[in-house]
What does this fold into?
Amino acid sequence: PKTMLHAIAPRRGPPLPRNDPQALAVPREDQTVLEDLHAEALDCAVSTLEAERAQHRSKMPKRPRLAVPDSNLIAFNDQQLKPETISEIQDARPFDWTDVAHAPKYVVGDQALLIPDDEPYDLLYPIHSGRLSAATGIKEHTLLDLLDTIWSYAFTEILKIPRRTFSTYKMLLVIPDSFERQFARQLADVAITRLGFAGVSIHQASVCAAFGAGSPSGCIVDIGDSIVSVITSSILYVLKVRR
It folds into this structure.
């Protein structure tokens, strides 16, 4: 697998468009309509999810489920995960600053962290704490443009997938366990509308972690940069009783 930091450093130029608090104010009557629509959409989503769960349970055998033995999990993980050997001088070896002499429009990923401070670049993180980084004050569509650039770079430069072939691929999108529906919709919009993928399958991080460990159920502790979550999942579903 390939990993890349979700960071981008665009070359400094005209200031990025930022939100105007006065322009974002919503009239009270419009806000009431939006709240009603949001409640209706949420009720529809919950009822659909409950119906899918009931259908899934009806197809399951009546006999009790058998837990995966710990010995099987240990054997599986021992085969898949190998320790990485680090040389003795690796930590002491000086790093190289990112060369921006050719004045690129942007620098993506880990290289964005190594741009000298005197260069005209601003380091930005479009996603923070499991949602779009609204604290920067940058407009939503601008953050989505930056995310589009990061993902496009990752697919074309790291995974070596030509952009013209994106329509022949489908994306598996892993989102935080505590997420906003709007955030999931925005990510799916970037993948399908902007990048042109054929489809997107969205799953929560804890479910994917349990599945990757070879267990359909478990208690997953996620220690992140700014959020620590304890999630219980059963049969690839996040239980309602969780933290």
In short: The chain has a mean pLDDT of 76. The longest strand covers residues 228-234.
